[in-house]
Write the structure tokens for this entry.
Amino acid sequence: MHIKADTLDDAMRKLFPRIIAEGKQVTSTRGRSREIVSTLIEIRLPRARLSRSETRGKAFSSLGELCWYLAGTDRLDFIAYYIPQYVGESDDGKTLYGAYGPRLLAHNGINQIANVIALLREKPTSRRAVIQLFDAQDLVERHTEIPCTTTLQFLLRDGRVDLVVTMRSNDAYLGLPHDTFCFTMLQEIVARSIGAELGIYRHFAASMHIYEGEEEDKNYIKKAELYLNEAVQLFWKGQRHKLFAV
């Protein structure tokens, strides 16, 4: 599936109905979900990274997660303040094995963000500006959670930085809004650091899914349907916007 959209909301309003209608039932570690295999989403205006809806406009938790990344820490208490659901993903009640911050800023002693910025300054057309989050070691031991994101690749083309994110697994309802916010912010940080403009954000997931738990508060299919029926502020090119109800 290939979805092209201007904003995050535009993308989710195209994506959710397809998963609900066409997704195949799959039971995984986290329970039953509806899944579409191989989904590519292109967002042409990455600064429209925050949903303008009541249910998915998670500015508080999105900013908290971004700060957690940039702090380079795996501390549970840091992120649990913003996203309490992380408490159930800790092995020891203190840290998160799959935390992105240490992998971004100190992966095997390497600051991958700084590396990418330095590389693009030296060789603007390089195809090697890749950040690796998933590691071979993640499959050696058993952990409650391991990174869903595999790589982030930054491409400087025509004075703009594009970002291509690849994910082994992506929760479309809960995870996608946070992932898009945090990764497009990293995209903008890299772009500004090398004096470039912001390009297109591309987000590929091998498994794009929505969980349909038996408990009411965990049936995200129903929550996705509520989102689709919600009035939202849609962002248009330039400064224009209007209220739009589906």
Notes: The CA atoms of residues 7 and 48 lie 5 Å apart.
